[in-house]
Each structure stands twice: as structure tokens, then as C-alpha cells.
Amino acid sequence: MRDRPPEIAVTGLGLVTPAGIGTSATWDGVCAGRSTAAADPRLAGLPVDIACAVPGFSPAEHVGRRSSLMHDRHVQLAVPAAREAVADAGLDPASWDGARVGVVIGNGSGGHTSASAQHERLLARGPRAVSALVIPMIVPNMVAGHLAMEFGATGPNPVTATACASGATAIGTARRLLQRGDCDVVLTGGTEAPVTPLLVAGFAQMGALSRRTADPAAASRPFDAGRDGFVIGEGSGVLVLERAADARARGARIRARLAGYAASADAHHMTAPDPQGTQVVRAVREALAEAGAAPADVGHVNAHGTSTPLNDAVEAHVVTRLFGGAPAVTSAKGAVGHTLGAAGAIEAALTVLAIEHATVPPTANHDTPDLEIDIDVVAGAPRERDIEVAVSHSFGFGGQNAVLVFTGA
Hints:
The structure is a single chain. With 409 residues, this protein is α/β, with parallel strands linked by helices. It is built from 14 helices and 16 strands. The chain has helices at 23-31, 59-63, 65-70, 73-88, 112-125, 134-138, 142-151, 166-180, 197-205, 244-249, 278-291, 309-323, 333-336, 343-357; strands at 8-17, 20-21, 38-39, 50-51, 101-106, 159-160, 185-192, 235-243, 256-265, 298-302, 328-330, 359-360, 376-377, 383-384, 389-396, 400-407. Helix 11 packs across helix 12. The longest helix has 16 residues, at 73-88.
């Protein structure tokens, strides 16, 4: 008879998002149900020039002047989120055994901000103008490497890249490391800084972005009848995971349990989801089975909810097929935009907070229900709800699906 895998606890949260710097600021902003989208000077002159940016973020203030010059913005965003998560968990990196601490971070585009800036230097001023640090600034694994150095974590430190599912995949990978006994503590999540002209122009060319540039605050509309694409965003989310028994032994607060994880591939299309959502359904069922839960137990679904016509329709079909109209569904992307590789981590943290506060945040800009979508989308104001089991979906280009199941502490 196989031993039951150890329970995995969430003991720390850290967030840096367009809704605010810090977990409390982000939670308050998302619960307010207001969009953070606005015209962004970094995108001036493009057909789509709106984004959800982290407000008042000063790299020098948050990571130090030297680090701000050495690291890409996606690393800079991750540092304060990780520091907050570690402090929230009540851990002291000066006293832990670094060999038993892992770092697993999801990221979709690497150091694209630095790559774009250095390419412009190359074209304008020649090769000698290119920074000697350009390679460590742009390689996607550097975020995990830097956090490992920051905290003296010498355990495994991979970066997961499953497009917009990257953050959720990282959290699931961290869960496996703890279950296997490879680590005692894992800092995990996702980070992304994709607000660059090239990336935004590319997403716009493929028709993925909202064209409501005259009214940015109304642009991201998950599950709404008038949705026409997502608004790109930046940010970072970091969770501290431990085995629940270890957390209890040191007297830590357990914020929630990461009770299940599963992943699958659509094997269908480069960018479009499988219209039937077959492999998403399988992943949800496998994650629930790992959690020892049934679909009827799920009270809340934190949806991927990108505000694109096809994605939202497919995801709603999956929710209806699995759960009927029972769970309260929300998408944070109406408020903070689509943060790509960071989205699954930010949304995982918000799912933990929804369980803690017994509150489901509203989906910003969900004003006109789509008659083809038969799910219970929370809109207008937060909804009080006791939640025993919650599911967070994340999907990525290439047919990447990652599903996390959280339960109360």
C-alpha cells in the first residue's frame, strides 16, 4: 500500500502587481473591482498602447541601485514579492539550511525589457555599446538564480516556461519537490515584465489584445459579452511552500493547503485552445483526485479568464461541464490585466486569500453577461462565501494546462 503523500502548506505570500505593491494592496485593489489599465508611455505610437503597470515601482528603492542596474525588470519585480513571502512565512534565511531550500519560478519571456533596450543600443551605437551583462540580464533562469543568491537557497532552482501557465506550473513543480523530500522549503511563483513594444505589437498582430484604447479602464472584460481581447500586464507573485507537518512543528501560520496539482497538453494548436477543453477537464479531475476532493466540493474557481472570445468560452464550457453552476467564478485579469507567466502565481495567491477571507473578489468590467456562458461570475462587488475547496486554472500557448487545488488551513 502506497504511503499518502505529505500535505503541502502555503505559509507565505508576496505580491507585486498593477493593483499594488504588497499582498494587502493587491487584495484591496482586486476586491475594489477596478481596472488598472491605462495608456503606457512605453508603448507610445503603437496601435495598442495600453497596459496594466505596477504603480510607483522604483527598482532602486525595492532592489537597490546596483541590482537595479544589473537585472531585468522581471527580476526586479520578483525580489520584493519574494522578500514579502519569506517574511510572511516567518522564516529567517540567515538561520535556515540553504541546501534544503529550493526556488522554482515561472516566466514566459525572460529579460525581454533588457533584450529590447540592448538591441536598440546595438543598432544605434554599435556592439561596444552593448552591456557586458546583457546575457545574464536576458536569460530566463536568472530570476531563480538571483533569488537563490538573495536568500542563500542552494537547493533546486529551475525556471518553468509554459507560457501563460508558467507560474502555476512552477507551483506544481515545487509541490512535487516537497513531496519527494528534495526540499523542506520552496519559494515558488512567477514573474513577468512583458510591456515592450515588440511583444505588444506581436500580440496585437495576432488579434489577442483588446482594441479599446480610447477607454483603457473598460478594455479587459473577462467572460463579458463585449470582450475583445486582453490587456497586457506586469507583476510577480511568490508563495512559500512547506510540508504541513514541518510548518506546524515550527509554529508557523498555515494560510492554506496546496492539496492538488495536475498538468496536461491540448496537443491541438499553437495558440488556440481545444474547443472541447478535453485535456483541461482531465487535468482538473486529476488535480481534484490528488486533493481527495470531488467536483461538488469546489466552491470557488479562480479562472484563467483572459477576456479573449475563444478562451473564455472554452473555459466556461469546462467549468459548466465539471461543476455546473455551483462555484463562484472570478478572473483577476479584469483588474490587473494578463501578466502572462506571472498570472498563475498571482491568481494562486489570490485564491489562498479568497479562502482565508471567505470572500470571492469581483471580476472587473463584467457588465453584460454572455448568453452563451452559463457560469456564476462574481461581478460588481466581492461576495462572501465560505470556501473549503478552490481551483485555479492556468492555460498557455502551445496547449499548456496547469491546475492547482487549494483547501482551507
